[in-house]
Amino acid sequence: MGNELCSQALKAFLQSLRESFDILPSEEGCVIVTPFLRSDNECVEIELIPQPNGGVKITDNCETIDYLFVNGLNISRSKELQRQIRRITKRFGVDLSGDEFVRLVNFGELGDAIHSFLGAVQEASYLIYRKVRRPPVTFDEQVEKFLIANDVAYDTEFKLQGKTREHIFRFYINERHQMLAEPLTATSYHAALVKAERLAYRWIDIRDLWPVHQKVAVIDDLDKRSEFWVGNPLNILLEYSNHVIRWSQNEELMMVLSRQNETK
User: Fold this and answer.
1) Which of 201, 199, 194, 195 is nearest to 164 (CA)?
2) What is the DSSP letter of 131?
3) Strands (E), 5-79
4) What is the signed CA dihedral for 132, 218, 21, 119, rounded to 10 degrees?
5) Which of 71, 76, 141, 220 is the most buried (most CB within 10 A)?
6) pLDDT, position 40
7) Does the global pTM surpass 0.85?
8) What's the half-sphere exposure (Cβ side, CA atoms, 13 Å) at 46?
9) How large is the average pLDDT for residues 219-240?
């Protein structure tokens, strides 16, 4: 009886776990959205990209290092953090290419490779708990403080059903505006491109179902980050967003809201 109970419980758990994953198309392959969460409650995502030799590239698209950076852990400036990241990647058989976690495997190795890759991403993300001092204000928090300071009414974590899946948007500026505002920050051009493509997909997925909603991308272009929001990342956002607001010119957000008030 005991073995049968454990067998049924394991079967039910694996079925529930399987249903918790989501798959999204990407430009080069597909993105797996896992049920595993970082401390900011964002799902861990990895991208699979088929290779010409029949293998598969697994990548986190710089999300892990980006997450550590926005929470105050600058890997490039800390030899101790670099040592810990090298230890993690070596343990799980993952390579670090610039800011990108990556692994190249044969198709037959894919299952074990994904399992170990997720282990590396999660363990690296846990480095955030080793910080003693309070992390700096995130870009999302900066945008939220700006809205509060300007007496803008808003909702957070606003859900909308798209054609293929439900999406959660960081800010919904309500009342008469019906505006979705999504902050974007990045630590490299590649990370900016990936985030722009992801947001464009979300805009497209809700566009026909919710045409009344204004889609606004708020990009962190302060200091060296301005170098990342050029070329394709910026062009993609301009093409699929109603407005793209540079944080260095954040007063434009209030101007957009004011123009909307005048037209209603």
Assistant:
1) 201
2) -
3) 22-25, 30-37, 43-50, 56-59
4) -30
5) 220
6) 76
7) no
8) 25
9) 94
